[in-house]
Design goal:
Elements: E1 3-8, H1 16-31, E2 35-40, H2 46-57, H3 63-87, E3 92-95, E4 102-104, E5 113-116, H4 119-126, E6 130-134, E7 137-140, E8 146-148, H5 154-164, E9 169-174, E10 195-197, H6 198-206, H7 214-223, E11 227-231, E12 239-242, E13 247-249, E14 255-257, E15 264-268, E16 271-280, H8 285-295, E17 303-305, E18 314-322, H9 326-335, H10 337-340, E19 344-348, E20 351-357, H11 367-377, E21 384-388, E22 391-397, H12 401-411
Parallel strand pairs: 1-2, 1-9, 2-6, 3-6, 4-7, 9-11, 10-12
Antiparallel strand pairs: 4-5, 7-8, 11-12, 13-14, 15-20, 16-18, 16-19, 17-18, 20-22, 21-22
Bound molecules: aspartic acid and magnesium ion (MG).
């Protein structure tokens, strides 16, 4: 008998029908002889609606109270799911994050899990119950206050519980059939990936792919928990994310290991670009700019420094950051303008980032050239470039992103012959 941790996202439990459908799936897993722990998100767009509600009451709600409010969303779905399972004749018990032993630090709205002590969950499943756990939430070790793990945090709850319970697999049920070679909402011919390494998945997540959160994949890699991403709307095999490639046996009986040269194309339109204009070209300037940004607790992504015009001795430094941090960054730099020494700031939130990811590019010359050729054939202008060993990213105009993603996807032979990408649910909110 195995132990399976399953996670169902908001679009899978959007209404009573969805909850009943998910209850059936959970019961099937139990009937297949497994112990089952199911982690559940809030129904549909509940979390967004609760945030809207809070903002109507107070523009800057206290973190502690916002967490209290938001965790109610997952409580609703966990209780309903337990009821639906009982209706099917099986025993189920629901647990809050705190009851499930999800212990976090005390940073409200984006707490980190520091320990998981799943004693109650273990007892519950050992007694024959299906345990339902509210995702996205925990309890602070120090303050004993309720915390949330940041948007989309239920995936992390699931992987953390899977690690603590030494589960055989963590199944993440979502509204698409798995991880695709590009966002199926943008590329109709995106292909489902059968297996992807933790490393490539981490790069895709860091580059804007939303199917799995970066933090969740990081956790899975650290504890070596295989993740199976699949749809709760179909019975298809999804995508395995693990350290070992999946070995498939072909019809002729040969063993086939899939190791794609390129895993996929990710895009991200959530960032903005700040350009610091007229920076003296001398040591220490970049340090003081980025110290200012770091002191404001802002994470940046790409950085580019232009060659200084010899005549002026001045240069420009551009960097990208989440749009949501734009105001804060500009304010912090303006405040330190005389200390840092620059002429002016430019802010541009009409940018997009396109990234090509694949471990194969380490050993295959020409990937970069092909990438830039595809973009130029599509008439897309490149503003910034950054690379890692297994990724190339460029910044372009936001408007160019869908076309650019499709062009690169085709150029690397990733298009599938059929339109296999189905988006089953979700409002994309
Ligand atoms: N309900 C939370 C959110 O919408 C957590 C999750 O869905 O994973 O962000
Ligand atoms: Mg959600």
């Amino acid at each position: 008998m195995g132990l399976v941790v399953q996670k169902y996202g908001g679009s899978s439990v959007a209404d009573a029908e969805g909850i009943k459908r998910v209850a059936k799936r959970i019961v099937e897993a139990k009937q297949n002889g497994n112990q089952v722990v199911a982690v559940v998100s809030a129904m549909g767009d509940t979390t967004d609606e609760l945030i809207d509600l809070a903002e109507q009451v107070s523009p800057m709600p206290a973190g502690r109270e916002l967490d209290m409010l938001l965790t109610a969303g997952e409580r609703i779905s966990m209780a309903l799911l337990a009821m639906a399972i009982k209706k099917l004749g099986h025993e189920a018990q629901s647990f809050t994050g705190s009851q499930a032993g999800v212990i976090t630090d005390s940073v409200h709205n984006k707490a980190r899990i520091i320990d998981v002590t799943p004693g109650r969950i273990k007892t519950s499943v050992d007694e024959g119950n299906i345990a339902i756990v509210a995702g996205f939430q925990g309890v602070s070790q120090d303050t004993k206050d309720i915390t949330t793990l940041g948007r989309g945090g239920s995936d992390t709850t699931a992987v953390a519980l899977a690690a603590a319970l030494d589960a055989d697999v963590c199944e993440i049920y979502t509204d698409v059939d798995g991880v695709f070679t590009a966002d199926p909402r943008v590329v109709k011919k995106a292909r489902k990936i059968d297996w992807i390494s933790f490393e490539d998945m981490l790069e895709l997540a860091a580059s804007g792919s939303k199917v799995l959160l970066h933090r969740c994949v990081e956790y899975a890699r650290r504890y070596n928990i295989p993740i199976h991403v699949r749809s709760s709307f179909s019975g298809l095999q999804g995508t395995w994310v693990s350290s070992e490639p999946v070995v498939r046996t072909t019809q002729q009986g040969e063993k086939q290991v899939e190791q794609a040269l390129i895993s996929g194309v990710a895009h991200d339109t959530s960032e903005a670009k700040v350009t610091v204009v007229g920076v003296p070209d001398k040591p220490g300037e970049a340090a003081s700019i980025f110290r200012t940004i770091a002191d404001a607790e802002i994470n940046i992504d790409m950085v580019v420094q232009n060659v200084s015009a010899a005549s002026t001795g001045l240069t420009d430094i551009s960097f990208t950051l989440p749009k949501t941090e734009g105001r804060k960054a500009i304010d912090a730099l303006e405040k330190n303008k005389s200390g840092i020494g620059f002429d002016s700031l430019r802010y541009d939130d009409q940018i997009g980032k396109i990234s090509l990811v694949g471990a194969g590019m380490k050993t295959n010359p020409g990937v970069t050239a092909d990438f830039f050729t595809a973009l130029s054939d599509a008439g897309v202008n490149i503003e910034l470039i950054s690379t890692s060993e297994i990724r190339i990213s460029v910044v372009t105009r936001a408007d160019d992103v869908p076309e650019a993603v499709r062009a690169v996807h085709s150029a690397f032979g990733l298009d599938s012959d059929s339109d296999e990408a189905v988006v089953y649910g979700g409002t994309g909110r």
